Structure formats: structure tokens, C-alpha cells
Amino acid sequence: MNEKLLKKLRNREEKGTLRSLSSFDGMIDFISNDYLGFANFNLDLSNSIESGATGSRLISGNRLRTEELENAIAKKFGFSYGLFFNSGFDANIGVFSSILQRGDVVIYDEFVHASIRDGIRLSFAESFSFRHNDLVHLEERLKICSADNIYIAIEGLYSMNGDICLLEEINNLASSYSAKIIIDEAHSGGVLGEDGRGVLLDPTESEAVICKLITFGKAFGSHGAIVLSNDENIRSYLINFARSFIYTTALPLASFEKVISILDSELYPNRRNDLARIILKYNDLFPHSKSKTPIKIIEGYSITELQQIEKRAKQTKLGVKAIFSPTVPEGHECIRIALHSFNNESDLLLLQEILNIEE
């Protein structure tokens, strides 16, 4: 390895933020995005096609059932059209790199997913960030934009600080400045809103939103993602120009069969209710949190203290993860707690003890 790369590794080591792989098998889960506990949920998929897709959707990997599932899942979220991607990362890369054109402007919340930023970088559009959920700063950015096409990129639920976008206010600003919104509901889909439809319940109430993304690897415990829109031309455009859709082998149908089975099952609303209850219990026990989302962020620790907490938690079979820069900005290193429908009060009391937080 060349010296430049080694220097970057050593710099991480010196800061105490070098990443490595670790396993949390058999531990109480406060880490994963499996909010509703469906990752280990086995469905009877004996009637579905179990083999691989054999190719990309545009070659041999498309089936009538694939399109039936796209349509059915889109309808569950209140949209007319949907297009599957192999992951949320692939979906964001495909959407932002293809829809944004030279001469366009995209303004994105500073805390959006890395995949959105990467998709923007792959486009030829001019881009600006705005301070997280800061409507004044967003409007300042909009005022100076003279492009014919202006896009705003936001998330429903921000995964590294656990708060929700100000969708109504951002929609009003977008409408005032003739901008369009693309919303990533990777962490809010299946969890927040009526029937788990996310922050954006009814797309007709947010006219500026041209598409939204739902991933299946989090609340639905499967794999893949869907880009939803009420404009058939958006779907057709992505089929023709989104490279992360065109040039990859499609996922097996079982990934999507699992999602529709969950959406149609009685377990789905029951587990969302269980998750809502554990969120309320957490808020009772932990004075720093009053949000209604399953992502909880605890700041105020040094890097050394965070490492010690992680180690102490692992010794007691408690899955807790410290988050370091560059995943979060320097100075905002934290403990990220993910709550699940299967967590219980005794889990929370143990977590409280590990973090030395009194009620």
C-alpha cells in the first residue's frame, strides 16, 4: 500500500476512530436497523421463484411477478408507481446521478445519507448543503438559485441524530421557489406514520415531492429498495438512465415477496405498536429523550469514554455502538441507540446501568 493510504489509516488510529469489523451475535440488540424484528422472520415462500434473477431487469431478470410486486408495494405507500433497486444505496445513487442534470441545482440537508451525496457527486448538477432542518438557511439557498430546475434532498428520519424532517415547511418553501423534493424514507418507512407509510403519508398533500425512497433492509428485514412516484415518466426515466438499476443483476423475487407478505400480515401493525410502546418506555427512563422515533442519540462523551462504554456493554452482552467521525461531524461523536419491537423494560434498565444514566 502506498504511503498516502497508510497515512490515512494511521491518522484514524491516532484519533482512536479506526473502524474494524465486530460481531454482536447473541447480544441484546440496541444496534441494528431491524426495528420491527422481521430480519429473522421466516415466511412460506415455497410458491415463489427461489432461483436467482439470472440477469439485469432489462435483460433476463424481469418477471411479471416483479412488476406486480412493484405495483402492490407502491399502492401500500399511497403511490401509483414503483421501481425496485437492489439496495437503498443503489437507489440513491441511481436517482440523484440520473435525474440531476448539468445546469440544475440541488440543495441537500447536511445530514443526508452518504449515498445521496455520492449520487449528487456523480451528477453534473451544482450542489449546496443547508444546515440541518434549518428553514432560514434553506430559504437563503433557494433565494440565490437561478437554475430552471431546483431540487431539495431530505430524509424522513435522520439516521444519525434521530429527528424528523420538517416536511410541511420544506414543501411550502419548495412550492414558493418552484423547487422539487426528493425524500429518502429509509429509516421512517415501515416505522413512522399511519400504516407505517412514513413521514410523507399522502403524496398529494406535498405536491413538490417528485419521488420518495423506501428501503427493505431495515423495518422490513429483507433486502432491496423501491423508488415511489405518482409520475409514470419518473419510473420510465430511471429504467432508461439510472445506471445502478440498468447495470446490475436483479434481486431474487423472494426479497420482495417477503415485504408484501409483511405488509399484508397482522404482525405488521402489532409490531409497530410494540415499538411505539418501547419508545415511550425509553423516554420515561432516559431524561435526554422525548422524541417518538426509535433512534436515540446520546452525546457528551469523549472518544475514550465512548470506547469504554462500548467495551463495558459488550462484556455484559449488550449490543451498543459508538459512532465516530466521519459518520458524524467531529465533536459530535455519540452513542447511537436503536430501539426495536422486541426490546423490553429489563433491556432498557440494563442499558441505563451501562450508560450510568439515572432516571
Give short descriptive properties of this protein.
15% strand, seven-stranded mixed β-sheet, single chain, Aspartate Aminotransferase, domain 2, alpha/beta, globular, 2 domains, Aspartate Aminotransferase, domain 1, 37% helix, 12 strands, 359 residues
What fraction, in percent, of the residue positions are helical?
Answer: 25-40%
Count of helical stretches: 12
Mean pLDDT metric = 92
Secondary structure tally: strands: 12
CATH class bucket of the largest domain: Alpha Beta
Gyration radius, to the nearest Å? 21 Å
| Number of domain units | 2
Low-confidence sequence ranges: none
Report the order of strands and helices: HEHEHEHEHEHEEEHHHHEHEEEH
Which structural category fits the helices and strands? Answer: alpha/beta
Q: What is the CATH architecture descriptor of the largest domain?
A: 3-Layer(aba) Sandwich
How would you describe the shape? globular
Distance between the termini: 50 Å
Assigned CATH superfamily of the largest domain = Type I PLP-dependent aspartate aminotransferase-like (Major domain)
Strand content: 15-25%
CATH domain fold name of the largest domain: Aspartate Aminotransferase, domain 2
Biggest sheet overview:
7 strands, mixed
Strand order of the largest sheet: 2-8-7-6-5-3-4
Overview of the molecule:
- 37% of the residues lie in helices and 15% in strands.
- The protein has a 7-stranded mixed beta sheet with strand order 2-8-7-6-5-3-4, sandwiched between helices. The protein has a 3-stranded antiparallel beta sheet with strand order 9-12-11, with helices on one face. Strands 1-10 form a two-stranded parallel sheet.
- The longest helix has 19 residues, at 267-285.
- The termini are far apart.
- It is globular.
- β5 (150-155), α6 (167-176) and β6 (179-184) form a beta-alpha-beta unit.
- The chain has 359 residues and is an alpha/beta fold.
- It has helices at 3-15, 64-76, 88-99, 114-122, 135-143, 167-176, 232-241, 243-246, 254-264, 267-285, 303-315, 345-355, and strands at residues 28-29, 81-85, 105-109, 126-130, 150-155, 179-184, 209-215, 225-229, 295-298, 318-319, 321-323, 334-338.
- The protein contains 12 helices and 12 strands.
- The model has no long low-confidence stretch (mean pLDDT 92).
- It has 2 domains: 16-39 and 266-355, Aspartate Aminotransferase, domain 1, CATH 3.90.1150; 64-264, 3-Layer(aba) Sandwich (Aspartate Aminotransferase, domain 2).
